Amino acid sequence: MQYERTLSTVWDDLLESLDSETRDLLDVLAFLNPDCISEDLLRGKPDTTSGNLTVNNSFRLTVMLSSLIRRNLLERNITTTCPSLRMHRLLQLTLLLNLDRRQEKRQEAFDNAVRLTRDALPRRDMTSRLPQFDAIWKQHMPQVLSLQAAFEQSNLSIAAGFEFASLLADAGSFLWEHRLNRIAIPLLTLGEKIVVAQLQEGETHSVLASIENFLAVLSAYDSVEDRRLAMQRLKRVVQLREGILRSLPDKTATLEQQIDLGRAWNDLAYIHADTEEFEEADQGTAKALELYKSLGDERSLRFRFAIQYQSIAAVRFGQGRLTEALDLSRRSYELCKSELGPRHLETARMEVEWSYVLIGAGDLHGALDRLMDALAVRSERLERDNPAILNTKYWIGTVYHYLDQLEEAEEYLRQAIEFGADSDLGKPDLARSQYRLALLLYEQRRWKEAVTFEEAALSSISDEEQATIFCDGDGRDKRKDITMEVLDRRVFLQNGRSTGPFRGERTGKV
Predict the structure, then answer these.
(1) Is the entire prediction scored with pTM above 0.90?
(2) In angstroms, how far is the first alpha carbon of the chain from the final one?
(3) Which of 182, 272, 352, 427 has the fewest CB atoms nearer than 10 Å to its CB?
(4) What pLDDT is recorded for position 422?
């Protein structure tokens, strides 16, 4: 209490000198990221900050901001590329503490902050990915995270509805595309909680289906056990999507609503492919493709066909139908590149997944070219410890290992594990990379170091699985192969596999 009183004393005189409109604006800003509030965000749609402030009265907004800057309640960022403001964190805390004592004002300010942010951010359309919106999402993502924190940390509950949940769902989608899973999952979990609280028993809503879908896919990276839960969640998503379409009058479903159902079928099918249930995977991917063909073609729905071809390619790869898998992977990459351009993250993902099939076909140099291209794109767009970059480096190191270029292989494999558990790289992926490096070190007779990495990798699997390896493995080399296959199968299929049904026609090292 003494701390709160001290903070209030610092700012009270200045706050009391503000007119009501300017104070309302400051309360809204308190829910946003204090380090960088874009002025473009404030000049959004009419009536988003108070009853009198509108985009048509830009001059009035300028006057209010000037007043706040003059009183040192805000300051301009001079280092940012676009006009933005900064608020002292102690002032932000004071404003939020004051709002916690004024429930009606707090709710109004929060709703307006949500509306400002929602209006500034383009809605994520799963029909395609529009690359021109990426910069906008990246610029304003801190505001979404600030709203999430304010909502969760408020002393009193804040009401939130579908608009905020939809914003969280879209943010989760963007973060997943950038493989920022640790940030995305709490956002989506909060969105799910908000939507469920709004729905009556038996009710469905598209926002809930979207959130469930993203949570299922995100959780699939963590462990085999989580992928089993993801399969159950995706079955619910299919039911939700089918229920939404059934509830609509005939021929009134939008293109996106129908595509959302196809996505749900496809994502569930992909999890079946991950667990090597290829018959179910084949049925689900075919069902989604048939739906897309009824809605458009490769020209009108290029992105969705690209995604679908890549999913079917993974199934064909696992079925041993390599010629089909290679053709589908190539078409997937080309469609994605023509839709989004060669430097988009989704294009890079299609290129990496194409490389998995090339490895299975024994075209190691072709795979290496694809992986190097994708690494260049990902390194340009993502941080060094991003799991997409680390996974690409694992595969580059693995291809070099297959080519007996051990020095290059070691370099990339060490880079793949250098951040360890501190990155978003899933535990199964880290263990696989550690064991691949151990195999390389064993080849070089660097026993002590090899054992260290081998033990680290084996610590990620259960005693029962380790016992199975030693029972089935007749001889040291056989045990190494079985261990690599066990660790490889624990990795989510989207991150690639090179053993079991996904070994393909390649011969030589496991």
Answers:
(1) yes
(2) 64
(3) 182
(4) 86
